[in-house]
């Protein structure tokens, strides 16, 4: 027999593989990607909304302003106001608003880890003294330490 006389049909190619429905691995990859994006957005929002971050930036600006100004009483007042505003943001108002003097210093030391009382002592009695002689570097260091290590959340302090 002749090759040309054989009744063969032309070669049939399979249909192209469609993209739908997707394999389970692709679904898992999509789900994982969406979860990671949502987690990153939540983390960034929480990080950017942290009042301690803004307070640290303001402390840096106070420090730069003080280098040019040099008014020690104003420096104590600015640092005190900054820490009080931050504490009012992080803690219940009734626990923080009325604090002053030694009670304020005790609160600052109790609500943070590793804060040195020597640096913060001028916040307790500095605004009421006629002579304000204290170590400004220790004050800035203690304020920065408090802002970095203050316990977040609405905690009750007795």
Structural write-up:
The chain has about 160 residues and is an all-alpha fold. It has seven helices and no strands. The protein has helices at about 25-50, 50-70, 70-90, 95, 100-110, 115-125, 135-150. It starts with about 25 loop residues before the first helix and ends in a 9-residue tail after the last helix.
Would you summarize the structure shown here?
This protein is mostly helical.
Key descriptive features of the protein:
63% helix, 7 helices, 158 residues, mainly alpha
Overall helicity: 55-70%
**% residues in beta strands:** under 5%
Question: What distance separates the N and C termini?
Answer: 106 Å
Q: Uncertain runs with pLDDT below 50, 5 residues or more?
A: none
Q: Note the overall shape.
A: rod-shaped
Strand tally: 0
Structural class: mainly alpha
Sheet of most strands: none
Radius of gyration: 32 Å
Average pLDDT over all residues: 84
Question: Helix and strand string, N-terminal first?
Answer: HHHHHHH
**Total number of helical segments?**
7
What is this structure's SSE topology?
Blueprint: H1 24-48, H2 51-69, H3 72-90, H4 93-96, H5 101-110, H6 117-125, H7 136-149
Helix pairs in contact: 2-3, 2-7, 3-7, 5-6, 6-7
């Amino acid at each position: 027999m002749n090759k040309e006389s054989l009744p063969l049909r032309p070669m049939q190619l399979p249909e192209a593989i469609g993209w739908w429905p997707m394999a389970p691995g692709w679904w898992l990859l999509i789900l994982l990607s969406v979860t990671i994006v949502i987690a990153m957005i939540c983390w960034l929002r929480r990080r950017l909304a942290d009042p301690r971050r803004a307070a640290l930036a303001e402390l840096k600006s106070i420090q730069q302003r003080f280098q040019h100004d040099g008014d020690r009483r104003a420096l104590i007042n600015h640092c005190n106001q900054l820490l009080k505003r931050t504490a009012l943001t992080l803690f219940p108002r009734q626990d923080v608003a009325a604090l002053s003097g030694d009670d304020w210093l005790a609160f600052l030391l109790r609500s943070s880890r590793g804060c040195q009382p020597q640096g913060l002592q001028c916040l307790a009695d500095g605004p009421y003294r006629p002579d304000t002689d204290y170590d400004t570097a220790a004050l800035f260091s203690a304020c920065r330490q408090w802002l970095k290590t203050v316990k977040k959340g609405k905690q009750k302090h007795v």
